[in-house]
Request: fold
Amino acid sequence: SSGINAEYGGAIALMKESYNKIVHTEQGKGGLVIMQAWYGVFGSANKLIDVTIPLQCLVHNSRLILPDQTKVGMVGFYDMSYGEQKRLSVKYSFRNVMHEVIISDEDALRIPRQSHKIAGS
Reply:
């Protein structure tokens, strides 16, 4: 698994420049900024990876759409708990308002969504 971690680390490093540009652009227009995103098994023994950078790199024109299939094959994602039910948790800012959503691994993700708004933010 150290090979996977090295590959993951390398992928994240390559995304950093793109990530910084996209965040700058999105922040400048009050667009879609991924504040925090976790992928994996949530529970007593969290087996999670930080996927904030890979998700932000997929934002185009303040939109992020992921298909209804496992996220394991995506760049910057990997399966650290084979055979267990994984979820994706995303906390994001849109128009400077905080939003949050948690989906199952095979669900589609379309953000931003009005229904994801965190009450009182």
Observations:
- Residues 4 and 78 are 8 Å apart (CA to CA).
